[in-house]
């Protein structure tokens, strides 16, 4: 089960339309946030009091800077192209800073809408000063959000059966995989992000899925469950589920606040491994996540099309509409133990 980029899944990005983040003082006064070529440093922006975050559902196109709006999107026009424009930095009145990604929807060569995706919670009636515009790091920041990542302290099951913290792993270490036995780690990535809102880590509490310890994962991370009974009614026993779809506020929660250290594990092929006893996926390289890789490795994977077959695991993914219920985690726990 190797890498593939022809049929990537949908990602839902939490964004604000440009008109929800308005320049209140500066050259662009009265205008909503725009793309890099139209932004002016030191302009001050405010979030509208009625601003509402929307889910921009996108599928990757042919490169890591462009997407296509998917049918499940809450905003935009299905089929239109969306381009990753830039990463901007704002400073709050208390001198703290945060980043945001600017995305541009295009139709027939013209700009239809600009979207603002901040990596922090913003308060209305608060001035945020534009202090940085970067056209080169936006894809990396977006890739970090899309990555399948383990939080610091997560125990990974090794080929020997030993439990090793993810931060102590090394390239070449042999990890136990569900389908192919011991396999060596090819690459380990790490990054630190602000743990706020949609980007805060998801915690599967001890015992929620028969795990002995809390498991902290990035929201887009998928876990693998073998159902002995199809309690969810999905029509198959093997299921792959994004952890953010299991959040119920009790046994599966999103921990907001501070920062989180994330680690990505890459193997020669997409694998299911064991983290705190739960079967969970490793990094899957597609146009969304490729931005976290070193340039040389990214080029190698992009050019080696012969080995990039579609992981069969992706056929097991359960869509949000089927799993969005408060008892989903409990049903999965029972189904896997029946």
> What are the low-pLDDT stretches, counting only 5+ consecutive residues below 50?
1-8, 305-310
Mean pLDDT across all amino acids: 88
Q: What is the helix content?
A: under 10%
The N- to C-terminal Cα distance equals: 28 Å
Widest beta sheet: strand line-up: 1-4-5-6-7-8
The secondary structure category is: mainly beta
The general outline is: globular
Q: What is the oligomeric state here?
A: single chain
**Rg of Cα set:** 20 Å
**Largest sheet, strands/sense/barrel:** 6 strands, antiparallel, barrel
Work out the helix count.
Answer: 4
Strand % is: 35-45%
Q: Overview of this structure, please?
A:
The chain is mainly beta. The chain is 9% helix and 37% strand. The protein is built from four helices and 23 strands. It has helices spanning 138-146, 295-303, 320-323, 328-337; strands at 11-17, 21-25, 44-47, 54-60, 66-69, 81-91, 97-107, 110-118, 128-134, 150-151, 155-157, 163-165, 174-177, 181-184, 187-194, 202-204, 215-217, 222-226, 238-242, 252-254, 259-266, 272-275, 278-281. A six-stranded antiparallel β-barrel has the order 1-4-5-6-7-8. Residues 1-8 and 305-310 have low confidence and may be disordered.
